[in-house]
Amino acid sequence: MNEAPAAKTAEKTTSINEVVISLYKAQDKVYPRSVSGFFTKWRWVIIWLTQLFFYGMPWVQWGQRQALLFDLEARRFYIFNLVLYPQDLIYLTAILIISALSLFLFTAVAGRLWCGYACPQTVYTEIFLWIERKIEGDRAARMKLDAAAMSGKKLFKKACKQFVWILFALWTGFTFVGYFTPIRELGQAVLSVKLGPWETFWVFFYGFATYGNAGFLREQVCKYMCPYARFQSAMFDDDTLIVTYDEARGEPRGGRSRKADSKNLQLGSCIDCNLCVQVCPTGIDIRKGLQYECIGCGACADVCDTVMDKMEYPRGLIKYSTQNALTHHWTHKQMLQRIMRPRVLVYSAILGLLVAGLLLSLWFRPSFKVDVVRDRGVMARMTDDGKLENVYRLQIMNGTERVQHYRVAATGLNGLEIEAEDRHAEESNENDTNFEHSITVQPAESRWLIVDLKIPDGSAETGSHKIQFEVESVESKEIVTEKSVFLVPR
Length: 490
Description:
By secondary structure, the chain is α+β, with helices and mostly antiparallel strands. The protein contains 17 helices and 17 strands.
């Protein structure tokens, strides 16, 4: 009889003690404080250089065309005097590999240099924050404005900020599309309201991506969307330069007046002002050690140095250093000597070889390309004059921006004759086994040529015979050879 009330009491106690634990925490908005210093100046130098290149390069002319243009419709990439075709995919692959190895090398040497100084997410976030500061004020003013009730002044500032953001984002999208459609033509199409559907889509898509990532997502992209933050630790070691807090010097931390003697107070150099947290674009506390959210921008080091100057303490409480340097109290020279360690030397050697190979390949790259495709609809056939014929299609791609003339010849079988669809070609019979055909290709154009190869019936055994096409440039005397086969049926 007494057990039932006890059970009910236990149930009530259990229900009262139940606590709902949320697995997700609402993200507080980060309000980075403006900062000046050595690393901040360098970051803005990089921002200026990258953005002058990005926004200015599409307007640079090279001869009668845009200097840097990726013409997808014509399937040609123009890089100053270099013209690349889809067949030159190997160069794009090499550039991607070099970029990846460069990222590995820079990360092994100095952590997330790319993220902190040159990543588009960082660059555009800095630009959008600069616009925000100019309109709404610095950190305290922005926090106060966001916390205030809606008013005419607040609405005006927010509207102005959004207008400038949108305008800048659309200009960014327009510039991006200008690398794929000649930007002067694109500008005329915008002014005359005759922009094509695909250009319109990509201008707004890229503009919206810039507006959303740099204006709203900001550090969320670095912390949760970017895969680099997740695997960067695999490329770090104890000799990698990272933004570090000298805990031995800074702890125990605590506030004090400028004239107070920290030794008498038994305090470290850190005055616990939290300015290093306030200037961090990802909102972390560097004093808690290395964290994957840290992008290595050095803003905390700059602001900490200003505080140390005011307190008349030595600089470098927060600085670029290595774990080994902090542990063993190395000098700056000793720390730099460890940079050239085996891991870095291997990365550097591989990267150097790839860059040298790419440059040499581009230097010795022929001025034209040739593709040979057999006509699969006609394996072999007999002609009216009693000869055995194979049909091929040759694509000759002129990689220069001048009219070029090419001689096409075929060798490999006795009595081999060449005929082409172009009846205005010049033919010469230099010997009994080689005929030539001449073709003209316009600047940076490609041309298909249908070629008939003939041999006297019975002059070759049944089966597949190796032949080769030799295409020679009349102007440069370059020769490109492409292999194929001549089929003799039973």
